[in-house]
Amino acid sequence: MAKKRNHWPPEEIEILTKRYPHEKTAIIAADLQKPLKNVFRMAETLGLSKTKEYMDSPDAYLFRRKNQFGNNGSRFQKGHRPFHKGDLPGMKATQFKKGHLPHNQKPIGTTRYRKGYLQVKLFLDKGKHNDYVYVHYLVWELHRGAIPYKHYLIFKDSNKENITIENLEAVSYADLLAKNSIHNLPEDLKEIIHLRAAVTRAINRKENP
Question: For the segment 8-52, what is each residue's pLDDT rounded down to a tens digit?
């Protein structure tokens, strides 16, 4: 099947046929107001090639370079081994060995605070932040299992360092918003809101055991 000619008009094909063998392709592309790659593609479709005189001229430098590194299969092939791989002086002595850990790698069990919450390092290979887990998450999951879907753990006494199961509570997003929005209300009104929320939760548990 013949290759498509990209709908070039006959007069442009004639110009390309006459000029391509002995002129710089970039000049032809500029005169025809076409992208350089389109001109190369059309020349290939037409089976055109540069003359020996042109290839021996200084104008053919880039063309020769293109052929040398692009079209004649001289690119590095899959599995290619660089000639100097591992051979530079002192290279092997400074390469990381399999299983090697950076000198600044913190050991498992290291603790830190992040945004006021205590974290403990449980992994070595999940990334800078994913190696750490919030301690209050671990305490909850140890005693109560997985945190309910779309729920958040809060500290009942607002003390993030009091990490005990008795001080932790899993609340829904709606309840969390309610808790955060009533801090500035009078104490008696706060108590009514808390009681109402407790009654609502009790009703929901009874209807959806």
Answer: 888 888 888 989 998 888 888 888 888 888 888 898 888 898 888
- How many Cβ atoms are within 10 Å of 29's Cβ, its own excluded? 17
Sign of CA dihedral 176, 177, 183, 187: negative
Beta strands 132-134 and 117-121 are antiparallel
- By C-alpha distance, which of 80, 75, 135, 140 is closest to 109? 135
Contact 152, 171 (CB under 8 A): yes
Q: What are the pLDDT digits (tens) for 176-191?
A: 776 666 665 667 766 7
Domain architecture of the chain: domains with CATH = 10-69 (no CATH), 111-207 (3.90.75)
Other beta carbons within 10 Å of 199:
10
